[in-house]
Amino acid sequence: MAARRDELNRLRSELDQRKTELAQEASRLAAEQQALARKQAELDQLQSGILGASAANQERAAELDRCEAELAEARQQHAAEAHKLQTKWDELRRLEAEIQAQSQAVHERQQQTQRQRRQLAQQFKAKRKELAAERELLQASGAGQDMQLQLRLSELQGKYDRLREELERLQLERDESAHRIAELKGQLETRQREMRDQQAAAEQALRRQQELEQERNRLQADLQRNLEEARRQAEAARADLADRSSEVQKQAAEIARLATELDRVRREAHEQIERLRIDQNGTHDAKLQSLHTLVEQLRQQLASENAAFSKERQQLEAHLRAARESAAGAASSAELARLREENQRLEALLAQAEEAARQGPAEGSQEMDDLRRRFEMAVQDVRELKTKNAELTEQLAKARQAGGEPAQQGHDWESLKQRMLAQLESDFDENDDGQRADKLTVQGAIKITDQVVAEKEHEVRELRRLLESQAQQVGEVAVGAQAVAQLLDSDELIRQERETLRQMQENLREQLRKAEVDISLERAKLARERAELDEKIRSWEAERAQMGTFDPADKSKKPGGRKWLTRLGLGENKEE
């Protein structure tokens, strides 16, 4: 019985330890739930930052929403699991109380059994004394009473054997109870090992979650760094655009100055033409007509360039509207508006240049100077138009080949130059000194114009290259946020970590389900053991009741024995 009581005490201590482990598990789950809540708050902050950075991060925001929903679901599941663990903990406490009550009942039963054993020992001693007395009386009575005494002794020996068998049965039941307690202890150790395994798995899941948190922080830092880089590029693009705007304004001022100069030259040329019409003859009229033809051809070339410029401007405006809608930049829209205004001013200046080109050249040195200035101003206008054309062309997202338009324009100028030279050769008279001088002057002007056009085309190519780099930077800024989102979505490590996290959650759920089943089985076992203990207690109480009814029977037999001795003639002699 003492060994069984020790086993019950050990079982109680193990139950206390298990209760402590369950409490630690519940606190760990609560801490994990708080960590998930913090992670959800951080994801909310990350989502708000990404939404504020660019509209291209909407896909990332959707992904974060899905993650948030998964985290919310996981948090609910953890809350349900914590509630289940709390319920199991309460059930274990109730079972512990029941086991304590059973242990108390067993202890009381042991005490009662010991009392019964002491009573039986006392009764046995009393019986032995009585038997000794009776034996002495029988010995004194004579040999005739030996048979009766032997019968009485056999009866008492049978009673003693029955009591010994009862004691052995009680000892056997005690051994069975000790064996059952040992089995319960083994089952409890098995459950404790399973709980330790579950705790180790939960700790591993927590470490995995911490690693994911570190990876998320690293990705967030990378995203922030990329956003800062994109912001710096946008600022650089804005600054470059502002510089380009200032250059365009300077060019507009220069064009205005040239327009004023062109008006002045036009008035002077008009006055000279009026004087030449009065002073010159038909030869000068032919030369004037040739120059008018040249100017008309230049005007047609400028008109074709203006048409191409207008077409490309429309395409560029459409492209810039799309870029403005994607980038949503107010500064870029203002710059584009200023560029459109500059284009309109350039168109007005082009119209003025075309009007001025219709005026005829003068004669002599002053006439050649005026013609050279008009060519230079026309080339300047062509350069400005080419510059604007290049600026608009380079912003069409590389839709056209660089250098194609200037090459075509150069080809047009070469054709015009060849026609002018052929016309001069056909109308040239070597005997006429004036025509010879005019030819030399016109050829020099054409040569100078070729040089100027070559220089301006080189400048156009340089401006085209600068605008191409600027457009590329603006494009990188526009797609920077989307590239970051695609980088996060296409990262294989992130996808693997997400899949691992989902698998760990499924494993934890499966372990919790197994724990619930095991606890239910353990609860059923404890219920069966409790029923067995109750049955044993009832059987012991019944045995104790039988023992209680047996003692009075023995006491009642004593007078019978005395009567038997009286019938033998011994009691009366003892009384005498």
Walk me through what this model shows.
This protein is mainly α and 576 residues long. The chain has a domain at 227-490. The protein is built from ten helices and no strands. The radius of gyration is 58 Å and the shape is rod-shaped.
Helices, by number, come to 10
Low-confidence stretches: 327-333, 360-364, 399-411, 550-564, 570-576
Which class best fits the helix and strand makeup? Answer: mainly alpha
Question: Nearest-angstrom radius of gyration?
Answer: 58 Å
Along the chain, the helix and strand elements come as HHHHHHHHHH
> What is the first-to-last residue Cα distance?
50 Å
Give the rounded overall mean pLDDT: 66
Helix share of residues?
over 70%
Largest sheet: none
Silhouette? rod-shaped
| Percent range for β-strand residues | under 5%
Number of E-type strands:
0
Summarize the structure.
With 576 residues, the protein is an all-alpha fold.
Supply the key terms.
10 helices, mainly alpha, single chain, 576 residues, disordered C terminus, 0% strand
Describe the SSE topology.
Layout: H1 2-53, H2 58-141, H3 146-279, H4 282-327, H5 330-357, H6 364-394, H7 404-426, H8 433-490, H9 492-568, H10 571-575
Helix pairs in contact: 1-2, 1-3, 2-3, 2-9, 3-5, 3-6, 3-8, 3-9, 4-5, 4-6, 4-7, 5-6, 6-8, 7-8
